[in-house]
Amino acid sequence: MDKDSKLTPSQQEYKKLAGKHEIKRPVLKNCVKAFIIGGLVCTFGQIIQNGFVAYFDFTEKTAGDPTVATLVFIASLLTGLGIYDRFGQFAGAGSAVPVTGFANAMASAAIEHRTEGYVLGVGGNMFKLAGSVIVFGVFAAFVIVLVKYLFFGL
Amino acid sequence: MIFVNAFVVGGIICLIGQLLLDVGKLTPAHTLSTLVVAGAVLDGLDLYEPLIDFAGAGATVPITSFGNALVHGAVTEAQQSGLIGILTGIFEVTSAGVSAAIIFSFLAALIFKPKG
Amino acid sequence: MHKDLLYACAFLSHIISQHKKFTAYDTITMKNERVRIGMRKWAFILSLLIILSTTACQTNEDRENLQGQSVIKHTIISQVDAETAEKAAERVEKVDKAQAVSFEKDIFIYLDVEGFDRFFLKDIRSQTKKEVEDAVKGSKVQVSTDKKIEMEITELKERLNDRQISKKKLEEEIKKIEEDMKA
Questions:
Q1: Among A68, B49, C15, C101, fewest CB within 10 Å belongs to which?
Q2: Contacts of C180 in chain A (CB under 8 A)
Q3: Quick check: B53 and C116 CB within 8 A?
Q4: Distance between alpha carbon B44 and the CA centroid of its chain, in Å?
Q5: Other Cβ atoms closer than 10 A to C20
Q6: By residue range, what is the domain housing residue B73?
């Protein structure tokens, strides 16, 4: 690989040695867990969405917002109670990829840095993971819509 | 039923995330950012809306829908107000999710104590 | 039914106020007696609640019957356009079922699409719109695949069949459906 060629020979040797002792990740088991848990979270979201459509004045399209808000609320609550950590360790991407993972990242960072004060600690650290997501999401959206507007007439 | 579709599609998107983590050896931040950008690209190609029609919450719950919502808001505003609409419309649809996350995270920090 | 509830509440509060405080020794010696009396008391309360609930049910039925006799039946509002629209929509290949309501020249139709066909909802909607507009000349057609619209249209159809709805109310409900479709 190109990266390896920049290292000195002894560094390359060390990298090989470290690789041999690295803990093997059980990829297949993780994938199965992620699929099942991720699917369950989304199914739960579907139930909530159907509930909003049936019992409140929302259409399928407009029910997406309150569904996401509800899931964010539940995730923040579980994070505060300390339950989400164990769930996240077990499920891996199954808990991180849905919007609940986003909410958990923000809530756990906020709670963790509470001791440093609300402005600097909570306010300053809340977007540790969410920041990258928002920055890249917004910039990607900007580029994509710009291209669409200029070259494809939207 | 719509629940089966939601389960399968949601599971597949999380599966892709897990592969990015384990096989691609990306950090969680990298993985989530990649998925958001993927969602934005799919909506740019008009492929994400059909996925939402098919899978319902299976496509709106994962973080990819965040990218889709950003592009959607920008496109709607740009159609109405021209180029400046791209800037004014980006956070229009995602407002609920991001605001909820900020507010509930702050409330959690007010109420709960960090555990060891 | 409110009167019955009040009687039940009064009876229960009477029982609760009768509860006396005993010493531990008294309670142990009186345990058997209390159990016997307690069981009798609960049997009485249970039977009273059963009687109250059955009488409550009866009065509800009577009230419904009374309402049924004096209900107003409105004039029949023609839904011929809606039925033509439904038939035209169901001719479209991927549409499983269609539900429509019509009012003057407006037709509002919900399509039921299942399975992998749901990937093509946008095309199915525009295709169906064309089919219905061809079938019913001069009509303004709005198509939706939203579950909420299905609920609203189905409910409206039922009320139209039972003639439970006046023309003015129909216009209001139609406006609401139109708004929801645009949202």
A1: C15
A2: 59
A3: no
A4: 14
A5: 6
A6: 2-111
Q: What is the pLDDT of residue C13?
A: 67
B:C CB pairs within 8 Å: 16
If one counts the domains in chain A, the total is: 1
Return left, alpha or beta for A98; rule: phi > 0 is left, psi -120 to 50 is alpha, else beta.
beta
Does the distance separating the beta carbons of C151 and A53 come in below 8 Å?
A: yes
For the domain made up of C80-182, the CATH class stated in words is alpha beta
> With contacts defined as CB-CB under 8 Å, which chain C residues touch A50?
147
- Domain residue limits at A146: 25-151
Span C85-118, pLDDT tens digits: 888 888 888 888 888 888 888 888 899 888 888 8
- Contact yes or no for A59 and C151 at CB 8 A: no
User: Six-digit token pair at B106?
Assistant: 């702050």
Overall number of domains in chain B: 1
E strand or H helix that includes residue A17: helix A9-21
Q: Looking at residue A5, what is its pLDDT?
A: 65
Q: What number is the ipTM of this complex? A: 0.92
Q: Which of B99, B104, B115 to mutate to test the interface with A (most CBs of A within 10 A)?
A: B104
Average pLDDT, chain B: 91
Backbone phi, then psi, for C150, in 5-degree steps? -60, -45
CB contacts of C183 in chain A (<8 Å) are 59, 61-62
Nearest CA to A121 out of A106, A107, A111, A130 is that of A111
Mind listing the pLDDT tens digit for each residue in C34-60? 666 667 777 777 777 777 766 655 554
